[in-house]
Amino acid sequence: MTDRTPYAKQVLAAQSIEMPSWAFGNSGTRFKVFAQQGVPRDPYEKLADAAQVQRYTGAAGSVALHIPWDKVEDYADLARHAAELNVRIGTINSNTFQDDDYMLGSVCHPDAKIRRKAVEHLLECVDIMDATGSTDLKLWFADGTNYPGQDSIAGRQDRLAEVLAEVYARLGDHQRLLLEYKLFEPSFYTTDVPDWGTAYAHCLKLGPRAQVVIDTGHHAPGTNIEFIVAFLLREGRLGGFDFNSRFYADDDLMVGAADPFQLFRIMHELALREVILPESGIAYMLDQCHNIEPKIPGQIRSIMNVQEATAKALLVDRDALEAAQQAGDVLGANAVLMDAYNTDVRPLLAEVRAEQGLDPDPLAAYAASGYADRIKADRVGGSQAGWGA
Ligand code: LRH
Ligand code: MN
């Protein structure tokens, strides 16, 4: 068996997972948003917290922004601030789901005036990308209906296609549109982009710089997400991931917390096609909410969970796997994968961190830094960041 450790260490040392700025703000459910002490009051403080995750993991080099939650006067200045903190501003997320005008939808709304308003916001997000140097515009639409007959299902698709085409035309040559799908919520009868097939079909019509985002919490229970990964990779239309995990619906829990085996199976498909590293063009992002747990340690733990699933996937003995698959050796092939999955990769990751000059235990290093107490003491007054819902 080939020793895959050197290759795995090389990939792990260069892996980078993007953090969601909103994970550092207060978040919750419709029942309650529990405020936490020390939470950032503005995007500058969110970046400072994200920089802590990068400092201790070395694998979280960029932060996704959400507009208007991260609205600032000067986005170029915010990008400079990020660079000073050794992080980069990554994906720009639009938000057409929190304005009263969007009750019946935004880009799919029956009223052309409301659709225009939504388009103007999406175009403003591209202006922000120009200022921050971001290449990816991530579009998730809450658009849908709650009752049969409420609106024309096909008509809403026409409206969506028209808006997407206008936004796509506005993109610069180095910029992409990442379309995110979601089965349901907040709409409970139809969702206008409910599944990977709908997102894929719209992207095909738009052009090569339109790609699909897989949010691991956006599928019907029992969906084989790694099949979707393998399919979209084969088509060259896998633009990115919103990693999180769930026991029931879009729970937005820490990636790998609810189903580490599923995360391993997903990373296995990505490792097989050698598209784990940033240059693969796949945007690996976390999309989570730390409703009751401390947020910076929650992000650190999440990055570590992705690293562990990735390390196991990189250790899969591909030659043995291929041989067993070719021989129709069902149990043999499955055993090759389970051997990798059942490998304790924590010592390997501790080694990779030590070789990068990082503390082998990022969580312990962060806890010992005293940063958590400092922000609790410093961040008094002002209004804490949140979803503003
Ligand atoms: C929608 C979603 C989307 C973001 C939001 C924060 O559920 O996954 O990616 O805009 O969460
Ligand atoms: Mn998402």
UniProtKB/TrEMBL annotation:
Residues covered by the Xylose isomerase-like TIM barrel domain: 73-279
SUPFAM superfamilies (UniProt xref): Xylose isomerase-like
Pfam family, one: AP_endonuc_2
GO biological process, one term: rhamnose catabolic process
Family annotation (Gene3D superfamilies): Divalent-metal-dependent TIM barrel enzymes (3.20.20.150)
PANTHER family, alphabetized: L-RHAMNOSE ISOMERASE
Protein name (database record): L-rhamnose isomerase
